[in-house]
Amino acid sequence: MTIKDTIRKYTNDLKFVTHIPAKEVEMLMMYLLEKNTIWLHLNYNKEFEQEKELGKLIKKRATNYPMEYIINKASFYGEVFIVQEGVLIPRPETELLIDSALEIIKTMDNNKRINVLEIGTGSGIISVMLALLIEDIKIIAVDINEKALELAKKNAVKHGVEDKIEFRLSNLYENINETNIDLTISNPPYIANDYKLPDNVKFEPSNALFGGRVGDELLKDIIDQTNERNIEYLLCEMGYDQKNPLTNYLQNFDIKSFSFYQDYEKFDRGFTIQFKK
C-alpha cells in the first residue's frame, strides 16, 4: 500500500481525538520513517513498509495519548524540544510568558548580567528560550521532578545553552541561597484538585497540573517567597479564573506595579509583579 493510501486508511481512526487526523497520521509516519513533510509529500506514491508499526501508534493515539509523547518532541517559540512521558507538554500559551520576560529585561541595565530563577522548569522550555534570546544571562532552573530536570538538561544541550543554565532539584526556593536574582519566572501547577481534566491531559503528570484545593495555593506561595527574598520581578502563568482572587491577595504586599495578560483565546493567563525594593 502506498503512503497516500495508508494515510487515507488510518485517518478515520483519529477523527474523534483530533481536528487534523490526516496530518497526525502523516506525523506518525514521518516519525517512523525519520523523514520530513517535504519528503513525505514527494513520495506519496511510494510503498509504505511499516504499516504494522504505524497501526500500533494509531491505536495508542486513538486513546487520546498525547502525540508529543509518541514522537518525543514538541514545537515551542519556533524551536523543537524533546518531550517525554512524566514531564508536562509545552503549551503555546506559555510563549506569552517568554514575551513578558523579554519586555521586562529590555528595561533592565544592559551593562550587567541578568540573573533569573525559573521555578518548575519541566522540560526546560522557558529557561532554554530565555538563554537563546538573551546574550548575557544566567539562569537557575529548579524542579521537584528529577526526571524533568534530566530532560531539561537534554534540551539545554540540544540548543547549545547548557553553559547559561544551572539545573537544580528544589521545591520552590528551598535550595536557593543566591541573593542576586533579578527576576523569577514560573509556570506552576494552578489547576484546582477537583477539576475534571480533558482526556488527553490525563496522561500528563498530576503534580505539574494541580495546584491545590483552590488551585492558586502554589502561586500564592511563590508570591510570598519571592517577596521575602527581595526579588524585584515575578512573572507567572495562572488559571483563567484567578485574576480577581490574586488581585485581592496582592493588596497585602508593598508592590510598585502589577499587571495581567491574556492568552490567544482572550482568557486571563498570567501576571507580572514589580515589588518595591
From TrEMBL:
Pfam families: MTS (PF05175), PrmC_N (PF17827). Coiled coil: none annotated. It comes from the Bacteria. Residues 12-71 form the Release factor glutamine methyltransferase N-terminal domain. Keywords: Membrane, Methyltransferase, S-adenosyl-L-methionine, Transferase, Transmembrane, Transmembrane helix. Its EC number is 2.1.1.297. It catalyses: L-glutaminyl-[peptide chain release factor] + S-adenosyl-L-methionine = N(5)-methyl-L-glutaminyl-[peptide chain release factor] + S-adenosyl-L-homocysteine + H(+). One of its GO terms (molecular function) is peptide chain release factor N(5)-glutamine methyltransferase activity. CDD domains: AdoMet_MTases. GO terms for biological process: methylation. It is an enzyme of class 2 (transferase). Residues 104-193 form the Methyltransferase small domain. The chain crosses the membrane at residues 116-134. This is peptide chain release factor N(5)-glutamine methyltransferase.
